[in-house]
TrEMBL record, chain A:
Keywords: Membrane, Transmembrane, Transmembrane helix. GO terms for molecular function: sigma factor antagonist activity. The chain crosses the membrane at residues 73-90. It comes from the Bacteria. Pfam families: FecR, FecR_C. PANTHER family: PERIPLASMIC SIGNAL SENSOR AND SIGMA FACTOR ACTIVATOR FECR-RELATED (PTHR30273), PROTEIN FECR (PTHR30273:SF2). It comes from Mucilaginibacter gracilis. Residues 302-370 form the Protein FecR C-terminal domain. This is FecR family protein.
Automatic annotation (TrEMBL), chain B:
One of its GO terms (biological process) is DNA-templated transcription initiation. Residues 27-91, 130-177 form the RNA polymerase sigma-70 region domain. The keyword GTP-binding does not apply. The lineage of its organism: Bacteria, Pseudomonadati, Bacteroidota, Sphingobacteriia, Sphingobacteriales. Belongs to the sigma-70 factor family. ECF subfamily. It comes from Mucilaginibacter gracilis. This is RNA polymerase sigma-70 factor (ECF subfamily). Pfam families: Sigma70_r2, Sigma70_r4.
Length: 372, 198
C-alpha cells in the first residue's frame, strides 16, 4: 500500500514536471480517470501554488460555469481527434500487448580486436593470445605482456617523435589496455582511436582520441598530460577518467573516476572532482554530477541504461553490434532502463526493450528496423 | 486605477464584493500570470491554461458576493484555481478531444534525461549565485521573477520606492548575467526560463 502511495506520488510529479514516459502517462491517465490520484494531485498542487491548510477555510465554491472545454480547443480538436486516435491505438498498455518475440534472425556481439598503426604505416592486428615483442619504433619497443597489456618501452633516447595510432572499428573493443611510454594506461571502446607519441619528450605529454577511452594517467607533475577530443582538452592532475567523444553524440562527456582533472573547451575551464562529469557542446561546457557506473560500464563488459533515450541507446548498440539502425517508426521520448552483458546476442537487449511496449524491432541482416 | 493598485488584496476585497470592476482589474493584473503558470504545469497546453485562467477569474467575478467570509484573498484564489484545474483535468481525461490536447502537448514538451539534468544544474547554479547576493536583492528578485509581482507591488509590499526595486533588479540581473555567461557559457535568458518554469 505504501509502495502504491510512493508510486502515485511519483506519477503525479512526473506528469507535472513533464518527465513521464509513455507508460507512466497512460497509467497516470487511467488512475486519474478513476479518481485515484485526486489526493496526490491536490497535494502536489497545494505545494506548487503554496496553499496552506488554513487557506481551505476561505473557500466555499462560487457558482459553477458549465462550459469546460472551450472555444479555442474546439477548432483544433477536429484534427487532433485523428492523430490522437492513432496515439492510443499505438500505445495500448504494455500488458495488453504481445510480449517480445525473439527474432529468428539474431546478431552476435562484437569481439576483442584492435589495430595498431605504426609511424611507417604498418598495421598490426591485436587479438587475444598474443605475447612477446610486436614491433620496434625508433628506440621504443612494443610488447604484449602476458597477453594482458600492450606496452611501449623506451630502450634509449628517441630523437625523432613518431606517432602511433591504436584504433577499433564498429563491433570491436581493444583486447587489452595500452600502456604508453610513461606508464599511462588507456582502454579503448568500440569505434574509437588514440594517437600518441612512441615516447614523451619535452615537458608535455599529449595524446588525441576519437570515440571513447578510459585513462589511468601515470602522474608526473613536471610533465603535464593532456588529451584532446574534438573541441575539448583534458589536463590530467593525477587521475582516472573516461572520455566519450563520439562524433554522432551531441556532447563530449568527460567523467572523473578518481583524482582531479581539468576540462577546457570554448574558452571555459572546469576542474572535475571524482563523481563529476563535464558536458561539452559546440558552445558550452557544463559541470554535472555523473553516473560513473553507467559511464564506465563498457569497461566491465556491460551496457547500463538509466532512463536512456532510445536513440542514444541504439547508437551505443550500433557501435558494439556493428549494426545500422533504421527508424521506420520514430517513437519520441522513449526512455529505457536496464543493465545488459555485452556478451549477449542483440535479441536479448532488443527483447527487453520490447517488453516496455513502447517499441518493436525487426532485424534484417545487419540492419535493425524500429517498427510499430 | 493607480490609486487602487497601491491597495493590498484585503483592502481591495470589499471593493470587489461591491462590484467595482477596477478592483477586479487590479487583482487580475496582480495574479493572472501566477495562476496561468500554475495551471500550465498541469495541463501542458498554453491554450487550455489561457482558458482555465480566464475561467478562474470569471468565477471570481461571478461569485464575488460570496467572498465576504474570505480571510486571505490569495489563498482563496489559489484554491479556486487548484479546484478548477483538478476538475477540468479530470473532465479532460474523460473527453477524447480535450485529453488529446493535453497528451499531445505533454509528449511534444516532454523532457529528456539530459534536459532534466541541465535544468537541475541551472536551478542549482542560480540558487547558488542568488545566495551570494544581499538579502534585500534576493527577496526582490524572488518577488519580481518567481512570484511575478510588478515593481509597484513589490515597492508597496516592502515599503520602498519603485526605483529602489528597479535598481535592485538591475543589479541582480547584471550579476547573474555575468556569472551565467562566464560559468555556463550560455545566455541568462535560457537559464532563467528553466528556473522560472519549475
Amino acid at each position: 500500500m505504501e509502495d502504491d502511495e510512493q508510486y502515485y506520488k511519483l506519477l503525479v510529479q512526473r506528469f507535472s514536471d513533464r518527465t513521464a514516459t509513455d507508460e507512466e502517462l497512460e497509467v497516470f491517465i487511467k488512475l486519474a480517470n478513476e479518481g485515484r490520484l485526486d489526493k496526490y494531485l491536490t497535494e502536489a498542487m497545494n505545494r506548487d501554488a503554496g496553499i496552506a491548510a488554513e487557506d481551505e477555510a476561505n473557500f466555499l465554491p462560487p457558482a459553477k460555469i458549465g462550459r469546460l472545454w472551450p472555444r479555442k480547443i474546439a477548432a483544433a480538436s477536429v484534427l487532433l481527434a485523428i492523430s490522437i486516435g492513432g496515439y492510443f491505438i499505438l500505445h495500448k498498455p504494455a500488458a495488453l500487448k504481445q510480449t517480445a518475440q525473439i527474432q529468428p534472425q539474431d546478431i552476435l556481439p562484437g569481439h576483442n580486436q584492435a589495430t595498431l598503426t605504426l609511424a611507417n604505416g604498418k598495421k598490426i592486428v591485436l587479438i587475444k593470445g598474443l605475447s612477446g615483442k610486436l614491433a620496434q619504433q625508433g628506440n621504443t619497443q612494443i610488447n604484449v605482456n602476458g597477453s594482458s597489456e600492450v606496452i611501449y618501452t623506451e630502450t634509449g633516447a628517441n630523437t625523432a617523435i613518431q606517432y602511433n595510432t591504436l584504433s577499433t572499428a564498429k563491433g570491436e573493443v581493444s583486447p587489452y589496455p595500452l600502456v604508453l611510454a610513461d606508464g599511462t594506461k588507456v582502454w579503448l571502446n568500440s569505434q574509437s582511436s588514440i594517437t600518441f607519441p612512441i615516447a614523451f619528450t619535452g615537458n608535455q605529454r599529449h595524446v588525441e582520441i576519437t570515440g571513447e577511452a578510459y585513462f589511468q594517467v601515470a602522474h608526473n607533475s613536471a610533465k603535464a598530460f593532456t588529451v584532446k577530443a574534438g573541441n575539448q582538452t583534458v589536463d590530467d592532475i593525477g587521475t582516472a577518467f573516461n572520455i566519450n567523444s563520439y562524433g554522432d553524440e551531441q556532447t563530449i562527456r568527460t567523467t572523473l573516476v578518481e583524482g582531479s582533472a581539468k576540462v577546457t573547451a570554448n574558452g571555459i575551464a572546469k576542474i572535475l572532482s571524482p563523481g563529476q562529469r563535464t558536458l561539452v557542446t559546440q558552445n558550452s561546457l557544463l559541470l554535472q554530477t555523473a553516473d560513473t557506473e553507467a559511464e564506465t560500464a563498457w569497461m566491465t563488459g556491460k551496457f547500463i541504461f538509466h532512463d536512456e533515450d532510445l536513440h542514444s541507446a541504439m547508437r551505443q548498440l550500433a557501435r558494439w553490434y556493428n549494426i545500422d539502425v533504421i527508424y521506420d517508426y520514430d517513437p519520441r521520448n522513449v526512455l529505457l532502463g536496464g543493465g545488459f552483458s555485452k556478451s549477449r546476442n542483440i535479441s536479448k537487449v532488443l527483447g527487453a526493450f520490447e517488453q516496455t511496449g513502447a517499441v518493436k524491432f525487426r532485424i534484417e541482416g545487419h540492419t535493425v528496423h524500429i517498427t510499430q | 486605477m493607480d490609486l487602487l493598485s497601491t491597495l493590498s488584496d484585503e483592502e481591495l476585497l470589499p471593493e470587489l464584493i461591491a462590484g467595482r470592476a477596477e478592483a477586479f482589474s487590479v487583482l487580475y493584473e496582480r495574479y493572472n500570470r501566477n495562476i496561468y503558470q500554475f495551471i500550465y504545469k498541469y495541463v501542458h497546453s498554453a491554450a487550455l491554461a489561457d482558458d482555465l485562467t480566464q475561467e478562474v477569474f470569471i468565477r471570481l467575478w461571478n461569485g464575488r458576493q460570496q467572498l465576504s467570509h474570505v480571510q486571505s484573498f490569495k489563498g482563496y484564489l489559489l484554491i479556486s484555481a487548484r479546484n478548477h484545474t483538478l476538475n477540468s483535468l479530470k473532465a479532460a481525461l474523460r473527453s477524447e478531444r480535450a485529453m488529446g490536447e493535453v497528451v499531445r502537448n505533454f509528449v511534444a514538451q516532454r523532457k529528456t534525461t539530459d534536459e532534466r539534468l541541465l535544468e537541475n544544474d541551472y536551478a542549482a547554479f542560480l540558487q547558488r549565485e542568488l545566495s551570494k547576493l544581499p538579502e534585500r536583492s534576493r527577496e526582490i528578485f524572488r518577488l519580481c521573477r518567481q512570484e511575478y509581482r510588478t515593481y509597484e507591488e513589490v515597492a508597496l509590499e516592502l515599503g520602498i520606492s519603485k526605483s529602489a526595486v528597479k535598481n535592485h533588479m538591475v543589479y541582480t540581473m547584471k550579476v547573474l548575467k555575468a556569472s551565467v555567461e562566464h560559468e555556463l557559457g550560455v545566455s541568462l535568458a535560457s537559464v532563467l526560463v528553466v528556473f522560472l518554469l519549475r
